Amino acid sequence: MAIPYVFEDEIEHGVCKRLTPLIRRVICNNPGPFTYTGTTTFIVGNGVVAIIDPGPKNDAHLDAIISALDPSEVVSHILVTHTHSDHSPLANALEEKTGAKICGFAEIKNDRQINKSRIDTKVAIEDANFVEMEEAIQRDFNPDIPLQHQDILNGPDWTLEAIYTPGHINNHLCFLLHEEKTVFTGDHIMGWATSVIVPPDGNMADYMDSLERLLSYDIELLRPTHGPEIENPKAFIQAYITHRQKREEQILGQLAKGTTKIQDMIPVLYADTDKRLYPAAAMSVLAHLEGLVQTGKVICKDEIKLSSDFRLK
Ligand SMILES: [Zn+2]
């Protein structure tokens, strides 16, 4: 099944919209090729609330979040799905205004945290800057409450559970709102596009595991940080998985034909794609190949980089 993308082009920046009895949203005025209509900041609960993904450093957005709250409301927690610059940096200013505790994954680690049996890989750092598609990373993120997989935070009318979902970046968390069987998916799953995986902070093998991980939960709705909500979450996640598996099969097919270099695979794999997107496509293929090396299907004799030779094992 093709990915059943969903779009919501008509939105109002900086305006609070109530989505459900427990969820309000405010969208930041930072639209772009990787943020779609902008960063959605969610307010969860009533009276004592949690705020998910405060957004980029942006004074107007900070004012909009504060205005969205009733003057008597208290912000107890600021939850961060991951430390890309369009998600986490406003947390500090919001903490100063509200006294809330910042909660997020403890630190970026480069070891494999989900599957330690994987083969270790090293991705050349120069390639990480090969394309400007990569969202900048807030490297000084330091949560008051470091979260681990399955940690639970509570308010009077809400329960949020952290689900560790590395892949887009290795400190990514999704948050499950138990009362509504809704998952705030950050950039792990988006409705309007596929998630961008850029090594070395992004990792395709972790990403695929994290998609499978979400399938094991009893959930009814996904709320990404960019774009509209996703209904039928399991079918959507399965379509995301199938999309990546197909690409992986195509890459293995290229290797079977003796094509060893990414630059020679791209024109074949992305024949229908605008050539300006080839650098981004190359990073995606690199991410797939790193995953295939880690799972032992592909061999790369040197550092994993765009110019390396890859072979089937
Ligand atoms: Zn991101």
Describe the structure.
It is elongated and about 65 Å long. Helix 3 packs antiparallel against helix 4 and helix 5 crosses helix 6 (278-294). With 313 residues, it is an alpha/beta fold. It has one domain: Metallo-beta-lactamase, Chain A. The chain is 25% helix and 20% strand. The longest helix has 24 residues, at 233-256. It is built from 6 helices and 14 strands. 44% of the residues are buried. The strands form 3 sheets. A 7-stranded mixed beta sheet has the order 1-2-3-4-5-6-7, with helices on one face. Strands 8-9-10-11-12 form a 5-stranded mixed beta sheet, with no helix packed on it. A two-stranded antiparallel sheet has the order 13-14. Strand 11 (182-186), helix 3 and strand 12 form a beta-alpha-beta unit. The site of zinc ion (ZN) has 5 residues, from loops.
